[in-house]
User: What shape does this take?
Amino acid sequence: MGVSEIDGHMIISADYLKKGKRVDIYLDFVHELVHVKQFMEGKELFDHNYAYVERPTEVEAYRFAVEEARRLGLSDRRICHYLKTEWMTDDEFKRLAKAVDVCCGKMPKKSRRQLN
Assistant: This one.
């Protein structure tokens, strides 16, 4: 799931919609809708002056998704599984978790996509 930097529309994998866990899909929608709003405000979504996990637009979107996950009653452990992706290094994951104030302790062995 992502947002086009050209016109701000959401790009969603049909396979992910079919096979993904509902809560992860929902949190990704929340995350990506923050990016749509950022795009509409004229913010640079893909500022390569920052690492992905430190990019202000990403941190803002993840914070909003984490806030929603907590509102739904998800534990920090489950939120950590949501945050971890297969393309993120252990160090990047730890930096992201810290940036969005999620206590992950030991890193999840599997990413959310691998849990599906």
Observations:
- The first helix runs from residue 14 to 19.
